[in-house]
Amino acid sequence: MEVGWYLRFGREETVMALADKGTEGQLYNQLDILPEWSLEIEEETDHIKAVFKRTDIINKKNQG
User: How high does pLDDT run on average in the chain?
Assistant: First the structure.
């Protein structure tokens, strides 16, 4: 999935992607590769909305 490129090279704290139902497993696989991200999935009528949040940014803000 192309979302991996955005997670690796983007500077955003949040990345939102719309994907086909049934692709949730592929989205969760990104967390195995990039554990500094968290994932929330919302099921819509004909697709899913995946929201990745960079957890290392959250941890840095909380530390100082």
Answer: 89
For 61, phi then psi, to 5°, come to: -65, -40
**The pTM is what?**
0.82
Q: In which residue are the tokens 């803000």 written?
A: 61
Dihedral angle of Cα 57, 2, 31, 40, to the nearest 10 degrees:
70
- CA–CA gap between residue 26 and residue 41 (Å, rounded): 12
CA distances (Å), origin 6, targets 21, 43, 57: 20, 21, 16
Q: Please tell me the distance from the alpha carbon of residue 52 to that of residue 1, in angstroms, as a whole number.
A: 14
The helix, strand and coil proportions of the chain, stated in percent and rounded to the nearest 5, come to 40, 30, 30
